[in-house]
Amino acid sequence: MTIPSPAPVAVNVGVVLDFDKQLGKIGLSCINMALSDFYAAHASYRTRLVLNPRDSKMDVVAAAATALDLIKNVQVQAIIGPQTSMEANFVINLGNKSQVPIISFSATSPSLTSLRSPYFFRATQNDSAQVKAISAIVEAFGWREAAPIYVDDEFGESIIPYLTDALQDINVRVPYRSVIPSSASDDQISEELYKLMTMATRVFIVHMPPSLGTRLFAMAKQIGMMAEGYAWIVTDGMTNVWSLTDPSTIDSMQGVLGVRPYIPRTNELENFRVRWKRKFQQDNPTIINAGLNIFGLWAYDATFALAMAIENVSMGNFSFKRSNISNGMDLETFGSSQIGPQLIQALSRTKFKGLTGEIEFVSGQLQSSVFQIVNVNGNGERTVGFWTSKAGLVRELKWANRSNNSTNNKPNLGPILWPGDTTSPPRGWEIPTNGKKLRIGVPVEIGFNQFVKVTWDPISHSATSVTGYCIDVFDAVMAAMPYAVIYEFIPFATPDGKGAGTFNDLIFQVYNGTYDAVVGDITIVANRSRYVDFTLPYTESGVSMIVPIRDNKGKNAWIFLKPLTWDLWVTSVCCFVFIGFVVWVLEHRINEDFRGPPLHEVGTSFWFSFSMMVFAHRERVVSNLARFVVIIWCFVVLILTQSYTASLTSLLTVQKLQPTVTDINELLKKGEKIGFQHPSFVEGILKGLKFADSQLISYGSLEELNDLFIKGSANGGIAAALDEIPYLKLFLARYCGKYTTVEPTFKTDGFGFAFPKGSPLVADVSRAVLNVTQGDKMKKIEDAWFSKESCSDPNASVSSNSLGVESFWGLFLIAGVASISALIIFAAMFLYEQRHVLLRSDSETSLWKIIRMMSRIFDQRDLSFHTFRKSELRDKSGNDCELGDKSGNDCVHTISIAGGSPNTNCPPSPSSYSNQTEQDFVFFVDQGRAAENGDQTPSGVSSPEIFPSPGRRSIELTNTQEQSV
Fold first, then answer.
1. pTM listed for this prediction
2. I want to staple 26 with a disulfide (CB 3.0 to 4.6 A). Which of 296, 383, 463, 933 is the partner?
3. Torsion of CA 644, 647, 649, 653, to 10 degrees
């Protein structure tokens, strides 16, 4: 006999929903189907959930009352619901007090998380999870502003802090927040939309329930806000229940982008849709074409999770513990569930794959999933992409694992149909279309009206025209914009046509909203950028000093020395002397022009070297090494002389126009007065340089500045003025021959156009400024307002710096290396030719004696060189010797060291050696050379000279008569 299995334990569970609404009916239907499917698959489980549904009637108090009734009277172990976040707020507190878990599949408000109740489980996505996906869309299309539109309740308000933070993280400005009451009338909605139309922002993020959202879009289409140029993004508050939206309202939402959690399509899900639709139609025959939405799927999964958790604690005590309080109110006397602590732990451990994907509660919250980006198109929606926390925006989920390093600056989404039936993404902002022109404030100036000139009508107390350089530049920039901008110039003036304040006051008018922009000679400085955003500058930048110039012509007799510094003069002279010495060394043995008495040779060397400065040398150079040195030195001399000429010419010109002051510190030390334009920030620069107030004099026009210079600092005028470069260029254009600019130059950013902080116009205007300033249009505007300057370069600081060694050290290095190389080569060749002298010197011969002998050899002519015509002299030597013997004149005598007597045969032959003077050396006598030096000896024999080389022919010497010939 089989033992019957024990009956399942019935566990009461409450359901609090709004059954008057289709969403509540769908939720209850899915909950019932979830229990049927769960226990059909697990028939052996020991527990069975018993549903106790209650209708909250769309009322917070009613929801709380039904929950209290379920806890106190029915003693439910859990409550599924309530439906809205406002209802859930109070019910969660009841569940926390009674230890009854509250499981909501539709309360999405982030504020519920702040309750930190361990008995609250959110079986849906937190609204704050989608803000990253929304900000990614805004960033992808480069929109710089976005305005949220939300319902005025807890559901709408709770997402705004998260959305604002996400937008600020990508540097997107939120200029306005549109709040619409949940019970707003059509007139109230229209009024708010018209207010949004007057603003530049064209990107709107809508977060409200479908009942209010559909009305909003219907009114937006009616007043023209669903046209081209607008961008609308809706949160999952509407996209999750689009299936419940009346098809007639879809037409007013064409081009809207929506964000919602992604539910993967599976066979189980499709089978459930078919079964649900059949059952729902049976239970609700009056509802036609009902559609299953994600909240119904979450209700199904939440019920599955609760049934699994109840089964896991089936051995527990499902009773309530009564309160010890007697005679108290209902809120104080209901007890607490004894299974509650175990049940919340079981729910936290529950993990399974449901219809919506992986179900797991972490701190009572479902984890963020993939978000789907949909576009309303035609009669329905079309998926254009997805967003994941890892990959960001992707067109297909199969690309989600790839790194998103796209550099084409295009959104990684599919084709999107925007409002107005266009595929071109909206720019995100527009000039307001309500007929309002941009109010452009302009300064009223008296002196420098070339920049801005306001013609004032004293009768009508209004401006008849606004012209000037800055005005023309702004007009050209607006014409270069990619879209039309309507604007008007409004002078910042008093009723009598005078300026109403300083430039800083004018900038503040943009900050407080009086003007939409400011155009004029407004300099971009740091303190002003705290209140407005500037475009890129359209003029030169900087603040410089202007001073009078004086004529110093003829006042310096030694000006010819100034082109070169003293170190360059000394270096040049030393190089001239050194080159002369090098050429003498290389030419002395082979060139008669470099021979003679010592003083003659020294003078010749200097003359040759210095005469190359004007290329007037007449001495021939026969050595290849000397020619190489001379060629290099001629090139150096050419560069030096040309540079000297150019520098001297410049000095003679500059000296005529010497500035009276070259350093601003001179003014401080001498207590001189300095001028500045009023009003201007330059006054602050001067005070920062420690100028006293008594030294500062303001001016307001070009003529006034010139008069102050004429008076001079001692007579109530000024010695210098500090102003911005555009003003100085204008001043120099008129008084170029009398003044010049000198250092220092203080860095500023030039003139720019000012717009309100965060204005989207700034980027486009800056790009247009670049297009204008880099084209011919800017040159035409400058020529129209500023006369052509007669100064060659008025911005260049006066300078008379002399040329120094650092400018020519490379040339000197080349000349020095060439000369030293030539000396080394010559010395090596000379020592190699006379190597027998060094080889035959014994160890007892002193170094000094060897140097003296080598010097004597160097001092002799090298008759073997072709310049002495060696061959002709050798042919004549025999005849000369015979004539010399007969006439008693000297010839060449060789003295043999081997002991022979003097040999007078011609030509002589060094076949023997003598030890009369130096052992192992051969000597010869040159009578003519001795006579030349005035050293006469008996028998006509001169002092001995060292014979160069025993292996060579004897050096042929001639007498004095032959030398003279």
1. 0.61
2. 296
3. -160
